[in-house]
Amino acid sequence: MAESNLTLVLPPFLFAGDDSGCFSDALAANSASLKSFRKFFGRGERQHFDEQSMVLCESFGNNFQSTADIPVATLRASGNGFDSGTGYWLCAEPVHLHPDLDHVVLFDKEHFELSKLELSGLLESLKPLFEEEKIEVCQGDDMTVYLRLLDVPQVNFTPLDDVVGKNILPFMPSGDEAAKWTLLANEIQMMMSQSDVNRQREEQGQSTINGLWFWGGGFLTPRKYDQEFDRVWSDNPFIRGLANFKGIKVKPSLQGFNELEPGLRALVSVTCDGSDQEKYLSMLLDLDEQWIAPALNAIKKGELECFTLVSGHSRVDINKKLLGRFWKRSAGAKDLIAWL
After folding, report:
1. Radius of gyration of the chain (CA)
2. CB of 106 within 8 A of CB of 215?
3. Can you tell me whether residue 320 is helix, strand or coil?
4. pLDDT at position 180
5. What are the distances in angstroms from CA 54 to CA 123, 142, 221, 327?
6. Between 255 and 232, where is the model more confident?
7. 220 neighbors 243 (Cβ within 8 angstroms)
8. What is the spatial distance between Cα 242 and Cα 38, in angstroms, rounded to a whole number?
9. Is pTM, for the whole model, over 0.70?
10. Of 1, 144, 20, whose CA–CA distance to 82 is shortest?
11. For 298-315, what is each residue's pLDDT tens digit?
12. Do residues 94 and 114 touch, judged by C-beta distance below 8 A?
């Protein structure tokens, strides 16, 4: 029988502090309905990490020194259907830049609503500027803007997640071409502020979308050998891009373990808003019934060699031997919080 492995990827858990405590209480209240989850986390081998993106890259055989080295734009663009196998690609995230006394604070799309039509209108207003700079602009389905450059820019950009909710000044571009890219960002900000889209948003009392944050630049050469997975099911552009560059067939995400074809080394990612407690809890309850319980049963019966779960900050692996450690207690609500 062909080796059968499953890697299940969860979206990062994005709330902390008092919100985390409330969610822990919700997990405790639903403890009986998370029985398989608790057993899995209690008996599996657990590893903690800081960045999920690094672990995902390693899972596909791509090793980078740091998250700053990951060509996020190249991978996401591929996952969105663009041919990003050539050229230098860069994310240009639509943001709201809020002036506050002597500094400017950045807010990303998690803090405002933006339609595809509005984004298209904003990009249309910037078209002359990008044409002058010989920059190709692509609008992704995930409301992300990608820039394709002819040459590799001599500049360093800061990942978006490191800047959200903070003063942007310490995170501005650095390097030999920093002045050029800072000037471009300022010109974009002025043109977007004067656009019809933002005038309408101001009239409706909505936050203006008055900037693009550059980050995630790089390039990646396709490597269609030594495939780590036979098949990938995902709606996540980053994961789809990782699979595309290895020549692995990608399909939309599945609803449950029983939809998997047997005998495959498979990766499945789950989509959910990691900042919404109610939705995240509902996702975990559904996963317990549709994925965790049947996967553990398949391991027990010898139909699945290994089951791996990658959450926002941990990786948990389990096989038949580990599952048999009956003396290991099931994880409690606080344990789950720590490993999600």
Report:
1. 22
2. no
3. helix
4. 96
5. 31, 21, 18, 33
6. 232
7. no
8. 30
9. yes
10. 144
11. 999 999 999 999 998 899
12. yes
